[in-house]
Specification:
The chain is of the alpha+beta class. It has a single domain, classed as Holliday junction resolvase RusA (60s Ribosomal Protein L30, Chain: A), CATH 3.30.1330. Helices cover 29% and strands 29% of the residues. It is built from three helices and six strands, in the order βββααβαββ. α1 crosses α3. The chain is globular. 20% of the residues are buried. The model has no long low-confidence stretch (mean pLDDT 89).
Amino acid sequence: MTLTLPFPPSTNTAYATVRGRRVKTKRAREYAEHVQFLCSVNAWCDTWIIKTQELDVMPRLAVTIEVHPPDRRRRDLANMEKLCVDAVFSYLGMDDSLIDDLHLTRHELDKPHGKLVMTISETDGG
């Protein structure tokens, strides 16, 4: 399954402490809602949900994320995956702890907004 997703806010700005609790910021919640909407209009996502509901054991997964930044600013590549993975896996009703193989790569710019291309596939389970 391959999804093209909007460029996420940095994980550094995605959480705030409110009354001693760590919560997602408004910007992070809006990003997750937008990603889940994109999943809802992608027929592949629904096929994936139906397929996994029929299994006795959830498959082990590999996730590849191609990061296409909107500009040349310095960014920590590791901050690109958390929000998009959480949003997609929440929509799929799956736990992201099923990921055994995770790859992030930086690619050419995608002006003006940037994008992520996420591919999810089953692994050998091994």
